[in-house]
Task: inverse folding
């Protein structure tokens, strides 16, 4: 958690892959906010410059709207993958070295994409 004051009070920041996927599903459906805000948020996710992890496991040319996040002991990525059959994928890792986490996210993404299109 990056909020030191909240940490000092014993409050922690928590999320799950299910939470992240639910947010992205609602964003993709346009139901999480106004249409204008959904479109703006979607544009930010499409413009993500960090293309390691989930994006690496998706065939080139497939659009991926995603958000990465990292702390000292956590590497996360959640995405809307616009493959032939679009899907949402969220992967949260903890206690792995950065390169291990990135490789794991790539491999999971590749496996999910292959399964979704088999």
Result:
């Amino acid at each position: 958690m990056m909020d030191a004051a909240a940490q000092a009070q014993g409050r922690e920041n928590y999320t799950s892959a299910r939470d992240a996927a639910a947010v992205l599903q609602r964003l993709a459906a346009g139901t999480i906010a106004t249409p204008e805000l959904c479109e703006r948020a979607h544009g930010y996710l499409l413009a993500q410059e960090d293309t390691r992890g989930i994006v690496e496991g998706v065939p080139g040319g497939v659009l991926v709207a995603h958000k990465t996040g990292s702390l000292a002991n956590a590497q996360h990525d959640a995405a809307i993958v616009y493959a032939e059959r679009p899907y949402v994928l969220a992967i949260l890792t903890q206690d792995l070295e950065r390169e291990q986490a990135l490789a794991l996210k790539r491999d999971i993404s590749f496996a999910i994409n292959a399964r979704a299109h088999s």
